[in-house]
Amino acid sequence: MPKIITFFEHERKTFKDLENEGLSKNEIKKLIKLNDKLKIFNTKYHKSIKAKQYVGVIKIKNITIQILPKIYKNENNKQKEALTNLLYMLSYTNNLKLKENIANLAKDNDLFEIYIYIFAKNLLKEIERGIYKDYNKKEDELNYLKGKLNINKQIKHNLTKKHKLYCIYNEFSENNPINQILKYTIELLKNATKNSKNKKLLNDLSFIFEDVEYKTITNKDFDKIAFNRMNERFKPYIKMAELFIKNSSINLATKDLEMFSLIFNMDLLFEEFIGNILRRYKEEIFKKDVDVYLQHKKYYLMTEITDENNKDFFALKPDIVVKENDKTILIIDTKYKQLINDRSKNYNLHQSDIYQIFAYLKKYNCKNGILLYPTYNEEITKTFKFDDEMLYIKQINLKHNPKSKSEYINLIKDNLKSIINSLER
User: Fold this and answer.
1) Which of 5, 234, 280, 358 would you label with 315, given CA atoms 20 to 30 Å apart?
2) Residue 361 CB partners (closer than 8 Å, separation 6+)
3) Which H or E run contains 134?
């Protein structure tokens, strides 16, 4: 039986805790060694490890270690909800292709198997539209002329075999680099999954890709893929395959996946998720014609004045810039941190974050800024003023128990609408 160990961000567990959850001393050593590469745990503590700001899954043979968002840390029996909402968030970034409702998938609390299921299920659905075929350049000795004759090789190899022609031609075939990557990933995951439903899906895919050449895929193979309107629909699956292969340690002799990691920085995930929701649903959220920019880069903090060429220093890159008629009307910076409702402790606002958004507002000549945090156990909203600029401390609730992805996204949209509507006009 696979072992599943669950951490929450910044949670600390002793080696004894891990042993009680089913890890052997040798498996704990393997985890510590793996962390030398991944650096997702803090191991400076005596006989204990502490998760950092990452979420995702680590697989070491039959052991699955998953790290879930810290906003659920003190809530009992919420692992399924935490997993489901994490997948919904990932689906609104560039990390995951998610079409169907996955609420029921999270019941087994195994993020590794869920990710395999999403890859296999959605790829099968895509293949219903037809397997991808492309023209491949081939060289071969034929009994008839096809394409064009390779004169140099004809002279070298077939001068005495006049009935043979050394031809260069294009063949429209399913045996192409995209399908070779998908086949390799399918075979890899067949050996890795312990879930019977996933095994069936992968076996079905394996049958479909039977005529595609099996070849070992390396990181360099992904750099050679060029997407166009004919193969764009397979881009999400190539990206998922890339995550599986680039983050794995594979025994080439047995084709076994010995180690796999799929880890996301929650600070960046929160920023990307909120930014993409605001950009995709901007008319609905702002109720007017605006442009939403992510990681906008236009200004620098200062410029060195010299007799020759002036030089700009310290680029400013706000997370989210909202413009109306080319005028910046709002800057939002996401902060995946916990506020506390204690004025004597500055509500746990970080001075560097305040300086940062102050610089943004001044350089962009913008009157309104938001520092946006996730909600934990209580809602905390505050309003501050610099000179003519207003700073709003706002929170958004990421913790929901929806029946579907669309319901979850609607709840997030409604929350963002409420935040925007609450600003002083």
Assistant:
1) 280
2) 331, 367, 368, 369, 386, 389, 391
3) strand 134-142
Residue 368's beta-bridge partner residues? Answer: 390
Which pair of structure tokens corresponds to residue 419?
A: 């935040």
Output the CA torsion sign for 331, 335, 336, 337: negative
Q: How far apart are CA 332 and CA 192, in angstroms?
A: 42
Q: Report residue 300 as tokens.
A: 């620098």
Indicate the residue type of 261.
S
Q: Hey, what are 105's tokens?
A: 């998938």
> Which 8-state DSSP code applies to residue 171?
E
The sign one gets for the Cα dihedral 102, 103, 107, 111 is positive
Does position 252 have pLDDT exceeding 50, yes or no? no
pTM: 0.78
Cβ atoms 54, 60 nearer than 8 A: no
Length of the chain: 425
Q: Over the stretch 166-177, which tens digit does the pLDDT of each residue have?
A: 888 777 788 888
Q: What's the token pair of residue 402? A: 């929806």
Q: What is the DSSP letter of 193?
A: -
Is the confidence at residue 254, as pLDDT, over 60? no
Cα 27 to Cα 22: distance, rounded to the nearest angstrom: 10
Q: Both tokens of residue 334? A: 């996401």
The mean per-residue pLDDT over the stretch 417-422 comes to 93
Residue entry with tokens 């394409």: 147
Structure tokens at 160: 């005495």
With H, G, I as helix, E, B as strand and everything else as coil, classify residue 73: coil
How is residue 265 annotated by DSSP?
A: E
Sheet containing strand 41-42, strands side by side: 12-14, 48-51, 41-42
Hey, what are 412's tokens?
């997030």
Partners of 256 in beta bridges: 251
How far is the C-alpha of 205 from the C-alpha of 199, rounded, in Å? 10
Query: How far is 363 from 314, CA to CA, in rounded Å?
Result: 12
Residue 185 has pLDDT above 80, yes or no: yes
Q: What is the pLDDT of residues 15-57, one digit of tens each?
A: 999 989 888 888 888 888 888 877 889 988 888 999 998 888 8
Cβ distance 257 to 191 under 8 Å?
Answer: yes
